[in-house]
Amino acid sequence: MISYARQVSPFVERAERAYRLWLGRSSEVPRTEVLANAASVQRWEFASWVEALSQIAPPPEAAKLHGQMLAGLRDGARASQLLSSGYRSTTYFAVCDGQALLVRALDCLRPVGEQIAQWSALPIPAAPARRRPAARAEARRAS
Description:
Layout: H1 2-28, H2 32-54, H3 63-89, H4 92-120, H5 133-142
Helix pairs in contact: 1-2, 1-4, 2-3, 3-4
């Protein structure tokens, strides 16, 4: 589980970072064409993450969580697409839908990220100490 968690944790972190970046941009940038382009790039990022995450085979105990992560990233891509098209055509209904879907996508990914963080924090089991060949020979002679 630790290996899997370390493999997939960057996807959740990137999604959260993209969301924070989007919130900053959308509140600071007044030009709709700039926001449309930024949303298009964000959509491409989310879609790329879905594709990359789809290539990772989760352990059986993480299959449900993996599916939730894929769904959250797909929703992030769809939300970004709505935002992009909404800002391009100044259809603020699409912008509102996109923003709402992006919030829901991140709400879906947060518990996934928390679980992955717990798995990542698990201690790695220590391998049993191996004796050197000379130490084994001495141990046999002593007994």
